[in-house]
Amino acid sequence: MSDGEDHETADADRGDAAADADGGDETVVRRDRFAGGPARSFLSSLSDDERIFAADLAVDRAHVVMLAEQEIIDRETAGEVLAALADVEDAGHGALPDGEDVHEAIESAVIDRVGQSGGKMHTARSRNDEVAACIRYRLRADILDLMETVIGAREQLIEVARAERETVMPGYTHLQPAQPTTVAHWVLSYEQALQRDTARLLDAYKRVNQNPLGSAAFAGTPFDVDRERTAALLGFEGVAENSMDASATRDFLVETTSAVATLATTLSGLAEDVVVMASKGHVDLDDDYASTSSIMPQKKNPDTLELVRGRTGDAVAGLNGLLTNLKGQPRAYNRDLQRAGRHAWDAIDSVTESVEVAAGAVATADWPAETLVAAATDGFATATGVADLLAMAGVPFRTAHEVVAEAAAGLAADEDAPDYAALSAVAEDVLGEPLSAYVDRDALVAALDPAESVAMRDSRGGPDPDAVVEQVSVAEDALAADSEALTARRQAVSQAADRRQTEVDRYV
């Protein structure tokens, strides 16, 4: 997405020198002196710019309509240019003439069709504010698509939580058995993280969706442009105020890519959990999300989740690449920026696919209840529940912790938890009284059961099935609100496109 050092003109004179040039000049918007040479292909971003081809056409149309409305160019010229842009769109990106970038190539294609007066489409703007507008226009569409994908993933995870709210599973810290929880509680922990990822994307969208057009190269323009009008025609929510900042900044790319990298990190954690669970037989992935070995036919590998984990590196590298590109660039425009956008595009494309795959793998997986509940007793995972019972009976928690820790230390290698007698003996030693003086035997035996241990944890946000029901309700409300926000932004963009087309039709 090359901008170069661009020039503004009020009329078709900007094309005269190029039109009179002879020999290998393949563009009508560059002077002959800069038309060829061994660095032309090095300078060109035309092939990469296919991503913003449609965005450039939209930006061109909005700009030309505004120029005509402001009587900066006449209606006839506006109509000719807008008709030529329709032809260029129909022909597609592949039919564009050679050029440094898509902006130059589209303008050249228009001039090829209508003559030198086609150069008036570039009046009162630079490729600097033009490309900034195109990037923002396309990026907001990518953000909305990614948001839609994340919202869909959250919906799938909520469905799993509904179905598995009583499916007990082992919970881990430091990859060691810690406390029993449920599949629903685990999956909702990632749904909540995805809520925040959605909020970050939505927040970034506000700063992306600002109009830089009218800033020109960086110092504004002497023409009586209406920046609010082009903002309305393009569906931007406001105007990027300072012309130098509007043309030069790419911090909106950084913010978006950072949100994408954070989302990728969320997905990587989920993928790692599932890979570890699969290795223990705690989850059975659907065959659509697994593969087998080329030499060991008995294996079922969680390859898709490993790739989700691996693609996190793509997003983090994209953020680092973008920050490195922007570091130290002076105001206002520098050609380095031609390489900035690709980092964001690559990260978004990679992570959007990862969202779909990760959510699909979890949604279609089988959770073997008997295996999971058996594993939930490993390593005396119910120990905290016993300590909590003693603390609720008035024993200081640190003393209760000591009782349970001493009981755990006395376990044989083949034991997962002490029995009542062992706990009572330790309590007599530490507390000076039998366990029955503090805790009912049946209550303590129940606390050693993983399902009962889960049921004890009925605090807000806990794994108790009733607490999970409340969490699902809260998650559904957040999902509905984010879905409405997404729909509202899509409608605003669509309505702007309709307004733009209506105005174009007045001239063509």
UniProtKB/TrEMBL annotation:
Primary location group: cytoplasm
Family that this chain belongs to: Belongs to the lyase 1 family. Argininosuccinate lyase subfamily.
Metabolic or biological pathway, per its Swiss-Prot or TrEMBL entry: Amino-acid biosynthesis; L-arginine biosynthesis; L-arginine from L-ornithine and carbamoyl phosphate: step 3/3
Localization annotation: Cytoplasm
Keywords, alphabetical: Amino-acid biosynthesis, Arginine biosynthesis, Cytoplasm, Lyase
Region: Disordered, residue numbers: 1-31
Alphabetized GO MF terms: argininosuccinate lyase activity
Basic and acidic residues biased stretches: 7-17
Catalytic activity line of the entry: 2-(N(omega)-L-arginino)succinate = fumarate + L-arginine
Keyword Lyase part of the UniProt annotation: yes
Organism: Haloarcula taiwanensis
Organismal lineage: Archaea, Methanobacteriati, Methanobacteriota, Stenosarchaea group, Halobacteria
E.C. designation(s): 4.3.2.1
Domain (Fumarate lyase N-terminal): residue spans on this chain: 75-313
Pfam families to which the protein is assigned, alphabetical: ASL_C2 (PF14698), Lyase_1 (PF00206)
Protein name: Argininosuccinate lyase
Cellular component terms (Gene Ontology): cytosol
HAMAP family: Arg_succ_lyase
Alphabetized NCBIfam families for the sequence: argH
Residues in Argininosuccinate lyase C-terminal domain copies: 380-454
InterPro entries assigned to the protein according to its UniProt record, in alphabetical order: Arg_succ_lyase_C (IPR029419), Argininosuccinate_lyase (IPR009049), Fumarase/histidase_N (IPR024083), Fumarate_lyase_fam (IPR000362), Fumarate_lyase_N (IPR022761), L-Aspartase-like (IPR008948)
Entry's Gene Ontology BP terms: L-arginine biosynthetic process via ornithine
Coiled-coil zones: none
